């Protein structure tokens, strides 16, 4: 789905860093912020190999402290500061099946990827935001942090719930220092990783892809809007939250799930 809105210039003069910004939701966010006038930096473990990559790229594995340090040094040298930080790195890497299938290594890897990478990067880049009394941090979480599925995403859901709690406490600490911190929790979104989750679930359950998708969506109560989100729709929400129009918003977790969460949040 292409963005049909006119390009704006409200982020002119701002530098944005989007982790995991070469594909899926991260790429959609990077593209949207650039359309709004921001200078965008993206990171991933490996260059996507696309000669037409539109944003400044830094190769970094953010689960490794030394890579975070090197990335921060490069940003400092070439850009000076980051005004907008989108902590988008993350993913479901552990097997389903419940507690008995998860080893210490599974838990540690999931926490590194979905929680500690964001904490590490925030800690590195926040001092300059605090010094300039301005900045926005968006943590990309998941509705799984509020509605975990024991047989599918136990460790992932726990790591995202921890990210939600961290984001809220950080927002409270920084509110008086001019830095806003928010969380965006997508539901089922049409990205390659989501397709793989459905494929793996369907295979493990002896189902076709279509049957697996239906059963998986039914486990979370279905999607009232009847479809998965497009990455660009998540990017639209993030764009709003980092814009001047959202200047009074901080500490809130925004679910973008087509109405699938069956609770009042």
From TrEMBL:
Signal peptide positions on this chain? none
Keyword Oxidoreductase on this protein?
yes
- Pfam families referenced in this protein's UniProt entry, alphabetically: adh_short_C2
Q: Which UniProt keywords are present, listed alphabetically?
A: Oxidoreductase
Coiled coil spans: none
**What SUPFAM superfamilies does the entry give?**
NAD(P)-binding Rossmann-fold domains
- State whether keyword Oxidoreductase applies: yes
> Which molecular function terms from Gene Ontology are attached?
oxidoreductase activity, acting on the CH-OH group of donors, NAD or NADP as acceptor
**From what superkingdom does this record's organism come?**
Bacteria
The text of the family note is:
Belongs to the short-chain dehydrogenases/reductases (SDR) family.
Q: Which NCBIfam families match?
A: PRK06523.1
Q: What is this protein called?
A: SDR family oxidoreductase
């Amino acid at each position: 789905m292409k963005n049909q809105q006119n390009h704006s210039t409200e982020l002119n003069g701002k530098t944005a860093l989007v982790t995991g910004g070469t594909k899926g939701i991260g790429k959609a966010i990077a593209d949207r912020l650039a359309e709004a006038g921001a200078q965008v930096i993206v990171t991933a473990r490996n260059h996507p190999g696309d000669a037409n990559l539109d944003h400044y790229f830094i190769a970094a594995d953010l689960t490794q402290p030394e890579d975070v340090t090197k990335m921060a040094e490069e940003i400092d040298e070439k850009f000076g500061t980051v005004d907008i930080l989108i902590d988008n790195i993350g993913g479901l890497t552990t097997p389903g099946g419940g507690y008995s299938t998860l080893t210490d290594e599974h838990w540690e890897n999931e926490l590194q990827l979905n929680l500690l990478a964001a904490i590490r990067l925030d800690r590195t880049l926040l001092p300059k935001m605090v010094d300039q009394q301005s900045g926005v941090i968006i943590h990309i979480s998941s509705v799984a942090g509020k509605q975990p599925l024991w047989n599918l995403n136990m460790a992932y859901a726990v790591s995202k719930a921890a990210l939600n709690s961290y984001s809220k406490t950080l927002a409270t600490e920084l509110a008086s220092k001019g830095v806003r911190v928010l969380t965006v929790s997508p539901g089922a979104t049409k990205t390659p990783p989501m397709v793989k989750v459905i494929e793996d679930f369907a295979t493990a359950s002896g189902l076709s892809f279509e049957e697996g998708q239906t059963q998986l969506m039914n486990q979370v109560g279905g999607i009232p809007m009847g479809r998965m989100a497009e990455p660009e729709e998540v990017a639209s929400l993030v764009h709003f939250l980092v814009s001047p129009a959202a200047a009074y918003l901080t500490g809130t977790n925004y679910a973008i799930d087509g109405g699938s969460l069956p609770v009042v949040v």
